[in-house]
Amino acid sequence: MPRCACMKMHILALLALAGLPLLTAHAETLKINGSTTVNLPAAEASEILRSEKKMDIQIDTQGGSAGGISMLGEGLVQIGMISKHVSDDDRAKFPKVTFKEIQVGEDAVALIVSKDVWDGGVKSITKQQAADIYEGKIKNWKDLGGPDKRIAFFNKEPGRGTWEVFVHWVYGSPKKAPQVSFPEVGGNEETRNKVASTKGALSQLSSSWADGKTVFALSIKTADGKEISPANENIANRTYPLSRPLFLLTNGEPTGDTKTFVDFMLTERGQDLVKKHGYMKLSDLK
User: Which residue segment(s) compose the domain that 49 sits in?
Assistant: First the structure.
């Protein structure tokens, strides 16, 4: 046996006799950050892998999807969680990073309203009406056939995946969206709580967070008058216009603990977590 191998075995034996813990393959922390939407199944997957694989995983939602992209680009995390595609601007900002999008599910963005608006008769919205509200041209729910009440619009923070899906639908590109001065909300929980507690409220939210009790998802009314709700069937067949993929984002092909985490999310157990939190798993997409 080579001398270096003997020395290594001797050191390990001494550590064991001294009662000191041996270093494992999972000594390095796997850091994950990004979308609050993707976070729900990812956080539960983290708990499983901590327990079963003894992995050290740190997961956070700073800055949403934009935060996931930037922190991966800066080398601060190994996995970003995003609910939008990486843009050309993102790739140009981090030219040395090979962003790899790995889809783990499908979700939709809903325009949600408070209970008083829903009970007042507003159940759907057109793209033009959404644009007019965003641009301040429509300010009262009576213009949408609802109660005579001011529209309290809470805008998702620009850069978040939910906001980008919304402005892509309305304007075709985030760069074409006008500057607005509405109060801003961040994660899904904050958004739902704001809308639920505010009369006349409207905001953009992951459709799975619309509980139908405190906040309600509007259907999208098409040009021919058809109303399409963010139901799973409409998300799966992509007739609902604000559907979106959910990604784990890595720098190149995942390896080590990063690969272990990604692979788990693509297993049946991982996909069941995606479905558990109200999203479409990959096998359900048409």
Answer: 30-107+243-284
